[in-house]
Automatic annotation (TrEMBL):
Residues 253-286 are annotated as: Disordered. Residues 253-278 have a biased composition (Low complexity). Keywords: Membrane, Transmembrane, Transmembrane helix. It comes from Punica granatum. This is Thaumatin-like protein 1. The gene is LOC116189431.
Length: 327
């Protein structure tokens, strides 16, 4: 038996692993968006500079529905949910009460979310030579919807992250987004440099957590609460696909996390004490907690409608595999 024409099983395994690694690097990541809310959500997507837009930049997602997107390698961008949207069926023109992107259409067309909005942010295959994905859920621009990000098929820490708490119910009066709902960040509400980490407060040493960011952090420990909240809010995974769930269901097998009340020693509001909302003194009853934390949640059934580019990538990977075997 000629060793070249009939390679050993260990050789084939070795080659297969190489091809899988190469193909994962070529193919990017799959994002599945699921709506578990009792109402319609209109997700928006935004690719960062240098990344190609996904198949849609804005669409309607009814209760229980899902949609799948596939990104190219080195893609970076964000997802968010818009609520209270109304679009004219004849002209397609309209707007949303929260998370609106200002395009006047269901497609955001390269525009981002107007605060307040919960954001899921990703960098697929870092440019630092590690091949890792970086991801987070950010409340830096405020909050409008519960959102969780889960990983599948990856290696590394690959933890779930997000904010399952209903911060709209706990939002202090001074941060409330008006009739449209949502909970603003302190930066959006007050615009002062100490809240926005700007001017003299533009470094990690000078910009510290405020009582408002601590409130967000207590409710959602793994989410970004302010600009320099990197250490406990950015996560990595290699070769994963991602599920983004709006209004994730509570799991009876997981205990809800009810964090300690935030300290009141942080930055105060321009016109009064930060505890005037009563949040710090009166945490909710655990039986009806608005601060649940779920490391896992139901993924649901999602059709895997991949793009043509992804299909070509699969064909390319198969071709490479056979070429290596016959070399």
């Amino acid at each position: 038996m000629h060793p070249i024409l009939f390679p050993s099983s260990s050789y084939i395994t070795y080659i297969s692993l190489i091809v899988l690694i190469l193909c994962r690097g070529i193919s990017g990541a799959t994002f599945t968006l699921i709506n578990r809310c009792e109402f319609t959500v209109w997700p928006g997507t935004l690719a960062n500079a240098g990344s190609s837009p996904l198949d849609s930049t804005g669409f309607e997602l009814g209760p229980g529905s899902s949609r799948v997107f596939h990104s190219s390698t080195s893609w970076s961008g964000r997802f968010w949910g818009r609520t209270g949207c109304s679009f004219d069926p004849s002209t397609g023109r309209g707007s949303c009460l929260t998370g609106d992107c200002g395009s006047g259409q269901i497609e955001c067309n390269g525009a981002g979310a107007q605060p307040p909005a919960t954001l899921a942010e990703f960098t697929v295959g870092s440019s630092f030579g590690t091949g890792q994905d970086f991801y987070d859920v950010s409340l830096v621009d405020g909050y409008n919807l519960p959102m969780l990000v889960d990983t599948s098929g990856g290696s590394g820490s690959c933890v779930s992250t997000g904010c399952a708490a209903d911060l709209n119910r706990a939002c202090p009066a001074e941060l409330r987004g008006g009739s449209g709902g949502g909970c603003k960040s302190a930066c959006e509400a007050f615009g002062s440099p100490e809240y926005c980490c700007s001017g003299a407060f533009a470094t990690p040493d000078t910009c510290k957590p405020s009582v408002y960011s601590e409130m967000f952090k207590a409710a959602c420990p793994r989410s970004y609460s302010y600009a320099y909240d990197d250490a406990t809010s950015t996560f990595t995974c290699t070769g994963a696909d991602y599920t983004i769930t709006f209004c994730p269901p509570l799991s009876s097998s997981k205990k809800s996390l009810t964090p300690n009340a935030p300290s009141t020693t942080g930055t105060t509001t321009p016109g009064g004490t930060p505890t005037s909302s009563g949040y710090a003194q009166s945490p909710p009853d655990e039986s009806d907690s608005i601060f649940p934390w779920l490391p896992d949640f139901a993924n649901g059934d999602a059709p895997r409608t991949l793009s043509i580019d992804h299909d070509l990538t699969i064909l390319l990977c198969i071709s490479i595999f056979y070429m290596l075997l016959l070399h």
